[in-house]
Amino acid sequence: MKKVIFTTAAPAPIGPYSQAVLSGNTLYTSGQIALHPETGELVTANIQEEAEQVMQNMKAVLAAAGMTFDHVVKSTIFIMDMNDFGAINSVYGAYFNEETAPARETVQVACLPKNVNVEISMIAVL
């Protein structure tokens, strides 16, 4: 059985998908980009602010499912430019304890929705 997770504290989906789906005790999130949930505007002044907005959006989705970053077991980071890896990793790392951080891959891609620089998805378990 699955339960669709939705919160107004994160951007509404811009297509036929859910912010997240809870199946049993496992949460599968859709990728989050740097859309501000209240204004619908992209936060792209610099890569750090963009990554911060992505993580805040993900935090809201996790919270809507009764979870935190401590529940995350796997992350996927999609970036447009691998030269931004250090800045994105610095922001991302602030949300996790290094000793218990989730598994992760980071992939450079050719294009992301709305031409953003970073998108992150996660899997979390209660």
Automatic annotation (TrEMBL):
Listed SUPFAM superfamilies: YjgF-like
Classification via InterPro entries: RidA (IPR006056), RutC-like_sf (IPR035959), YjgF/YER057c/UK114 (IPR006175)
Q: Which domain of life is it from?
A: Bacteria
Q: Which CDD domains does the annotation name?
A: YjgF_YER057c_UK114_family (cd00448)
This chain belongs to the protein called RidA family protein
What is stated as this protein's family in its record?
A: Belongs to the RutC family.
Enumerate the transmembrane spans: none
